[in-house]
Amino acid sequence: MDTNTPIEDGDIPQLRFLRVLVTVLAGVMIVGLLVLISLIVISFRADQPQFPTLPDTITLPKDARPLSVTGGTGWFLVVTEDGRALVYTAGGTLKSETRLNLPE
């Protein structure tokens, strides 16, 4: 029995269909990968929100030591170690003070 007989396209019609199917699927995968890469690049180029600019100095109440700082547009908040939330305007003026129950 000769096992080195070449297979011709005319002998197996499903082989041509399979070859076209694999080629089309490879092309779709390549295009999909390029679309994903371009979407990732576009999303990283978008303007990222910036932390508001803080004033040069702020005045904390007596014996207050800052624990954390967060901010938004036109305000920022300082949480102190003794459990107070101090809200400041963008200019550094104390707007409000709230007592927090921080976990031990």
Description:
- This protein is an alpha+beta fold and 104 residues long.
- Helices cover 32% and strands 24% of the residues.
- The protein has one helix spanning 13-45; strands at 66-72, 75-80, 84-89, 94-99.
- Strands 1-2-3-4 form a four-stranded antiparallel beta sheet, with no helix packed on it.
- β1 (66-72) and β2 form a beta hairpin.
- The longest helix has 33 residues, at 13-45.
Q: Which sequence of strands runs across the widest sheet?
A: 1-2-3-4
Oligomeric category: single chain
**How would a textbook summarize the main sheet?**
4 strands, antiparallel
SSE order in H/E notation?
Answer: HEEEE
Q: Please give the number of β-strands.
A: 4
Stretches where pLDDT is under 50 for at least 5 consecutive residues are none
Rg (CA only): 33 Å
Terminal Cα separation, in Å? 84 Å
Task: Fill in the keyword field for this structure.
alpha+beta, 4 strands, 32% helix, 1 helix, 104 residues, 24% strand
Describe this structure in a few short sentences:
The chain has 104 residues and is of the alpha+beta class. The chain is 32% helix and 24% strand. It has one helix at residues 13-45; strands at 66-72, 75-80, 84-89, 94-99.
Layout of strands and helices, then pairs:
Layout (H helix, E strand, L loop, with lengths): L12 H33 L20 E7 L2 E6 L3 E6 L4 E6 L5
Antiparallel strand pairs: 1-2, 2-3, 3-4
